[in-house]
């Protein structure tokens, strides 16, 4: 690619924790760099971003002072936005001004946004290409009101509407000041982009299937083959969880069964390692492997939620979902509706206890319908090609006039 066709691309990530957002962006960023574009990251977690992208420029996202959380148990995207400062016009002005200053520094041709609503608002009046990358949780359906992020519990409709109206008023005040049309519904802001790419599937979209987006499935980051125990035992059970209070009890009980257990537990301590050292049918590791290959090789899986649930189902592997927080419970709630998954515990107490996980896992493994539904799910998407979808995303980012990837 010659210098004239090289783009300046700003990649924004404002809200959310963990590696999930960065790992979702990783194959996209790497492909853009390979194609010669200049990529600048503006991220919530600078340390993690620099670990994953050591050779790229990384800046800190503008954030609300003090990070106050008015609504800790958010039930809509509007409440998340409220917590991030959208309730206050002066805060919106300050944060958008910071994003515009970053824009002046980077001078992007394209802004890619993963859960970055303030950046989305800030760049509305800028002559840049706007591309959304999401997994469904932070991209609303196009309805008069934001969809419910806690559909399993009774909502407080009037208060939610008032919160959303406060946020919309602040958004519209900024839009009008910039000479732009206000939005009649807050969800309309998320349509004022050039491309919307959801890294999930319609059945697992947190707020339900949408018609105005491109569903891209899940990227394949690769990695080494899964290191299954060499006992030859079946079923093969993939456990992919973060440490929690009951992780030792859970793995000890699983190790006592005649199953082959591959337990990927990033950040586990030496106590857990010592406790399981003599269990020959369980391999404990922190290292990630080729999760797509693991999905095809496993007979069932235990994971916390997120992309792993969908990847398992695409591999025809039924899943026991162990949610740690409400967003993961929402994924579990959607996955259960496919008939190929069960959920451990309940949303009033997360994460669940080890006995609740064992009970759910036994329910999963004893019912052949879950296996049948997982196979049907995988068959529906047998032609889904992650490499082709990644190429399509890159084409959306570059727009017209670039050679094919």
Overview of this protein structure:
The chain is an alpha/beta fold and 405 residues long. The protein folds into two domains: 3-217 and 385-398, Rossmann fold (3-Layer(aba) Sandwich), CATH 3.40.50; 236-380, Rossmann fold (3-Layer(aba) Sandwich). It is built from 14 helices and 13 strands. Strands 3-2-1-4-5-6-7 form a seven-stranded parallel beta sheet. Strand 2, helix 2 and strand 3 (57-60) form a beta-alpha-beta unit. Helix 7 packs across helix 12 (354-365). The longest helix has 21 residues, at 157-177. The chain is globular, with a radius of gyration of 22 Å. The chain starts with 7 loop residues before the first strand and ends in a 7-residue tail after the last helix.
Structural class: alpha/beta
Shape: globular
What percent strand? 5-15%
Would you identify the regions where 5 or more consecutive residues have pLDDT less than 50? none
CATH fold descriptor of the largest domain:
Rossmann fold
As laid out across the biggest beta sheet, the strand order is 3-2-1-4-5-6-7
Number of helices: 14
Mean pLDDT: 92
Measured on Cα atoms, how large is the radius of gyration?
22 Å
Query: What composes the largest sheet?
Result: 7 strands, parallel
Would you state the CATH class of the largest domain?
Answer: Alpha Beta
Helix content: 25-40%
Measured distance between first and last alpha carbons: 11 Å
What's the CATH architecture of the largest domain? Answer: 3-Layer(aba) Sandwich
């Amino acid at each position: 690619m010659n210098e004239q066709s090289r783009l300046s691309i700003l990649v924004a990530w404002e809200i959310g924790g963990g590696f999930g957002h960065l790992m979702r962006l990783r194959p996209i960023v790497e492909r853009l760099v390979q194609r010669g574009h200049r990529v600048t990251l503006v991220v919530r977690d600078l340390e993690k971003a620099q670990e994953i992208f050591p050779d790229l420029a990384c800046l800190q996202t503008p954030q609300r002072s003090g990070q106050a959380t008015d609504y800790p148990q958010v039930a809509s995207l509007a409440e998340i936005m409220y917590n991030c400062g959208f309730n206050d016009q002066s805060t919106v002005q300050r944060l958008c001004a910071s994003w515009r200053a970053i824009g002046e520094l980077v001078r992007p041709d394209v802004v890619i946004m993963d859960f970055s609503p303030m950046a989305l608002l800030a760049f509305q009046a800028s002559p840049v290409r706007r591309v959304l990358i999401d997994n469904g949780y932070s991209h609303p359906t196009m309805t008069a009101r934001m969809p419910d992020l806690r559909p399993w519990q009774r909502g407080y409709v009037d208060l939610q509407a008032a919160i959303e109206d406060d946020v919309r008023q602040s958004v519209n005040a900024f839009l009008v000041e910039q000479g732009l049309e206000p939005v009649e519904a807050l969800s309309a802001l998320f349509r004022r982009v050039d491309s919307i790419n959801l890294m999930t599937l319609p059945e697992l979209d947190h707020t339900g299937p949408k018609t105005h987006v491109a569903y891209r499935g899940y990227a394949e980051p690769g990695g080494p083959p899964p290191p299954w125990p060499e006992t030859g035992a079946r079923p093969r059970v993939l456990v992919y969880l973060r440490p929690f209070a009951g992780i030792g009890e859970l793995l000890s009980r699983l190790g006592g069964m005649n199953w082959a257990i591959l337990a990927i537990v990033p950040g586990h301590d030496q106590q857990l390692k010592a406790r399981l050292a003599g269990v020959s049918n369980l391999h404990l590791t922190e290292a990630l492997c080729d999760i797509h290959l693991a999905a095809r090789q496993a007979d069932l899986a235990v994971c916390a939620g997120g992309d792993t649930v969908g990847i398992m189902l695409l591999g025809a592997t039924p899943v026991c979902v162990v949610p740690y927080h409400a967003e993961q419970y929402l994924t579990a709630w959607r996955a259960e509706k496919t008939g190929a998954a069960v959920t451990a515990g309940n949303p009033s107490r997360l994460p669940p206890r080890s006995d609740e996980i064992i009970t759910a896992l036994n329910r999963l493994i004893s019912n052949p319908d879950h296996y049948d539904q997982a196979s049907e799910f995988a068959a529906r998407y047998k032609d889904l090609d992650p490499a082709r979808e990644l190429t399509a995303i890159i084409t959306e980012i570059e727009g017209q006039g670039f050679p094919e990837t």
